[in-house]
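Notes to self after the call with IL:
- keep both proteins in one doc
- input above output, always
- annotate only the second one for now

Protein 1:
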Amino acid sequence: MRLQLAGRRRTVVPRLETLEERTIPVCFTSQIGGTLTILGSNLADRVAISDNGTGDVFIQCDQDPLRHPFLGVSTINVRTLRGSDLVAYQLTGSVFGNRALNVDLGAGKDTFQAFLDQDNPQALTLNQNSILANSSFNLNIHGRQGNDFLNVNLSGGFTIGNQALLGILLDGGLGNDVENIDATRGTSPNTLGPIVGTNLAAGGQFNVRMLGGFGNDRTTFAFQGDLNGTLRLNTDGASGNDRTIANIEATVTSKGTVRARVRGGMNNDNLTLNIRQPPGVCLLPPCTLLIDAQIDGGPGTDVCHATTNVTKVNCEA
């Protein structure tokens, strides 16, 4: 007799189902009071910041297709950690109040780009972005380790108002870095107003520091505009065979102050500092700039190019 097993169960083989693919943004954003923090990862982060200058900010990060709004922001802190990161900042309006953008790009071959102008060559000078009277905007950008590209563009028309401050710090850190600040007419065809460039009002301040750090660095600063406030420029190549080009061109009627120091630091450097103001009819003296400028090659065999209103120190050629 054959016995039949009762309640015999079928064998079930477990299988994994393929889930719908989802992209998750890598960076993390948080806001406490007026401070917005953006924290990246050790991957190649992509961060896009749009700021209207009065506290309304939009953030788009990595693979996230959405732009996320934040209100009441006065300070933006960005840390992207390791990886080849890209941080892009666009100012879409004039700055009111005290604002700050602090970026730490961490290790890697990183890129930072800031556009402070309207990016509209057809706009009138008076309609361009500005730092409004009694307001301030400070950009502090640190490249850290790696061959970084740091660029700030306010060409084509930008105004720093009375008792207003625009401060820019570019610090390349360790690596062969490229640093650029363009405060010129740009490509705008508009000829209305005293100049389509950077207009620095009486009582306004434009403070610039460009630090190369360790490595063979390339630094460029260019200014064209009505200069009636105070422009402070400090560049330092530090260690490495560095190249710095700084050109300042003021309008005929400019009567502000330029305090400039271009330093090569260690090794063999190639340095340029030109400060120019064309002659013209003076209707209300004083009509010329007050200039305190020096180019210092430092240790090494240095090549210096400068206008006659600039003092040369440690320049072998």
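Protein 2 (the one to annotate):
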Amino acid sequence: MKQFNDKTFNQIGKPITESPHYMNTLHISFPYEYAANAANLNWSDIFFAITYEYMDYRSAIEHARVQLENDNYPQAVLDLACISSDEATFPHVIHPYIDELVDITGENMHNAKDKIMYILLKWVYEQGAGIDNIYFNDILDVAESIYHDFNFPESIASFASWRILPSSMVEPDLGSVEKNKARLLDHWKQFLDEQERRWRSSL
């Protein structure tokens, strides 16, 4: 079994031993089915999403049951798939199997971070763009919080850093709040389209 320590997440954020909400200050979560439809998930993605509570522990069981559809799968997948949903509420029941299955190499964990950020932003966008949102007052404020949580990634700066951009980088005023907001949402949608092509290419 792999042993995880404080250095495991040094390349993607703060160590795992710190608050699990470091990258989820808004405590947003989405269902496994939604994530699986948005991107091709692997165990690194599941581990990352569960660690920061973007998905719950039942997601690991759901992913294991999907993996059973393949011809070859390790024993840990079968063992995980056999756990009941009620048992999945206890982390110690799930983690031995996830820890065995996850690949913690730098590239995989960086990809997991990017992929989960994309799924998160897709979920938020679809919950709120163009409608009166029951979850958030303004989804651009949510995007800004996600921008902070994920350590200011340049890939989403065009719509998520609008409050903190230097004046020299701010796009010309379009003459109304509504038009300026619509432009930011367009940038958001462009990001989602690009990421969809990246993360669903092997589905």
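Annotation: The chain has nine helices and no strands. Residues 1-19 have pLDDT under 50 and may be disordered.
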